[in-house]
Amino acid sequence: MRVCISYFPKRGGTLWRMEIILVPGFWLDASSWSEVTPPLTVAGHRVHPLTLPGLESREAPRKGIGLRDHIDAVVKEVDRIGGRVVLVGHSGGGAIIYGAADARPDSVARCIYVDAGPLAEGGVINDELPAEGDEVPLPPWEGFEDGDLVDLDEELRAMFRARAIPQPKGVAYDKMRLSDERRFEVPATIIACEFPSSLLREWIDAGHPFVSELARIRDVEYVDLPTGHWPQFTKPAELGQAILAAVERTAVERTAGRTG
Questions:
Q1: Which of 90, 150, 198, 256 could lock onto 25 through a cystine, CB 3.0 to 4.6 A?
Q2: CB neighbourhood size of 206 (10 A)
Q3: What is the percentage of the chain residues whose pLDDT exceeds 70?
Q4: 1, part of any domain
Q5: 257: exposed, middle or buried (Cβ count in 10 Å: 0-12, 13-18, 19+)
Q6: Neighbouring C-alpha atoms within 13 Å toward the C-beta of 56
């Protein structure tokens, strides 16, 4: 994939620079995006990687932190930035950005799901993850599917485990609550890693419940980035390019007046 570094003029001669909020998946903080963001910042876009409540450190309190707290943290950042933003969510972060898009549909120009997707009303991110009290530690590698671990070699596994922070149990176990059907109008990009996009489309055509919410979104594009479940570690440069391409398509659409 070739990186196209460019700016998009808007009325008055200034430039569209997109505000990009990056939401990590389970067990990770803002620093997990560090090798992904360079193409975005070089292109002039502003990035806002988040560390969500309870993920500040291994010693941080996690009791009482639930899915709504993580969604609210993203919404707070959307409101702080103001204007239109692009939300990027990896893995469980996909459900979190979808909840934020539901809360602020007029403020979200695009949701980019990295090996993730939207979570429907009443769904949970993963209540089968083994918890210890109020938290879910990173499970042993034997607890993952082979597809999760593609390209995650021994060095990367050691790095990941050394930086992993236990996830608040409530975020994994709580049910999603949604309220605004304008969320279906927010354009989406699916960056498919573990499963090819062709399989996702097959599931949609078959009416599979796993993709029921994705099937209701009006404008969805698919990008294939074959690797395991953690492309920010296994293919960070390629992931950065894929996000950049989606962001710059969004900027072009804004300039043309198609997304407000």
A1: 90
A2: 8
A3: 92
A4: no
A5: exposed
A6: 7
